[in-house]
């Protein structure tokens, strides 16, 4: 009987995974990586394959359901293959399954100040119809109730998505990841660095993946904060696709087609999706709510700081609660960034992830 690795050693099975965290710049980073000609990145970015895998696969099933579906654009010139499902960070079983198929897999994790990340994450859940409470403070207060299975939105696919305090515990998630895989196979990126020096962050990610720098100097932002115009159309676009009684995708994702750099081709579905989008920034946390979140996550931030050997005390500074959050939408000025060959001009557009 073949081992997991025997099934994948001669295929285009991924050797790196961007596993989280949500609303921390993962979509932007994955777009930059997908444009590198030496990298084959999954289309779409998030496959959720190892979240859903609950039984052994034959080589034929792995080829058909994973490799052919998400990596059909693979070419012989690719030196690295990757995907970017951010929910893997919260499911240790998914990481363990990945390692069964590829013991040498590498993992990239992006983290962000929770006081800036959580309002953005809450709004993203609303956009995806996973959250029906528009007020973040009320949604936070509902966590224990929803953990008991009560007052969970009808369209929510997994109540764990609504556990805001757990989602933002990056220290606990990193500790869990380090317990499963070797630290040298994990690369952590702080969102603040991605904002301040996108080129440097990109180049260090390439070094971690043993891929050559391709000359990129323009790094756009994804996604700008958004909400939908019409709920009925949003429900249609994000209609769950079922297989054997399990949600495996959404109608929108299934009908999208992708360019080589992982951008979406202009088709009916993409036009409908774009038309139904309106710009809407997340509401800032009130001083009272910021204090509640800070108190809840203070120990975890300190844990993360020690794990990645990085001073994150500014995340707990009451005077800096909203600095990054306020400035990012207006980040329009080109910045100079150093490279191995000197200085280059690098534009970081104001689109929010």
From TrEMBL:
InterPro entries: NST/OST, P-loop_NTPase
GO MF annotations, alphabetized: sulfotransferase activity
UniProt keyword DNA damage present: no
UniProt KW Transferase keyword: yes
Superkingdom of this protein's organism: Bacteria
UniProt KW keywords: Transferase
Pfam families: Sulfotransfer_3
Gene3D superfamilies assigned to the protein according to its UniProt record, in alphabetical order: P-loop containing nucleotide triphosphate hydrolases
The protein, known as: Sulfotransferase family protein
């Amino acid at each position: 009987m073949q081992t997991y690795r025997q099934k994948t050693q001669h295929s285009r099975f991924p050797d790196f995974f961007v596993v989280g965290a949500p609303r921390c710049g993962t979509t932007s980073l994955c777009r930059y990586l997908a444009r590198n000609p030496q990298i084959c990145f999954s289309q779409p970015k998030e496959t959720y394959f190892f979240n859903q895998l609950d039984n052994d696969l034959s080589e034929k099933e792995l080829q058909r359901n994973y490799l052919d579906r998400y990596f059909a654009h693979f070419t012989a010139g690719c030196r690295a293959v990757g995907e970017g499902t951010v929910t893997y960070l919260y499911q240790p079983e998914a990481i363990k399954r990945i390692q069964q198929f590829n013991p040498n897999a590498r993992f990239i994790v992006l983290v962000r100040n929770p006081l800036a990340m959580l309002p953005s994450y809450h709004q993203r859940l609303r956009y995806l119809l996973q959250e029906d409470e528009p007020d973040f403070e009320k949604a936070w207060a509902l966590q224990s109730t929803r953990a008991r299975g009560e007052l969970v939105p009808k369209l929510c696919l997994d109540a764990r998505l609504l556990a805001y305090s757990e989602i933002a515990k990056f220290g606990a998630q990193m500790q869990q990841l380090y317990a499963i895989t070797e630290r040298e196979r994990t690369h952590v990126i702080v969102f603040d660095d991605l904002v301040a020096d996108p080129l440097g962050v990109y180049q260090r990610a390439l070094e971690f993946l043993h891929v050559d720098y391709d000359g990129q100097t323009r790094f756009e932002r994804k996604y700008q904060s958004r909400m939908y115009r019409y709920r009925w159309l949003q429900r249609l676009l994000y209609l769950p696709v079922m297989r054997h009684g399990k949600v495996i995708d959404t109608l929108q994702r299934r009908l999208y087609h992708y360019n080589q750099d992982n951008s979406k081709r202009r088709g009916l579905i993409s036009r409908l999706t774009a038309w139904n989008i309106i710009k809407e920034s997340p509401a800032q946390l009130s001083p009272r709510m910021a204090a509640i979140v800070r108190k809840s996550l203070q120990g975890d931030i300190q844990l993360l700081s020690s794990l990645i050997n990085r001073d994150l005390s500014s995340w707990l500074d009451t005077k800096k609660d909203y600095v990054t959050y306020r400035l990012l939408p207006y980040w329009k000025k080109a910045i100079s960034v150093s490279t191995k060959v000197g200085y280059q001009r690098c534009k970081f557009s104001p689109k929010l992830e």
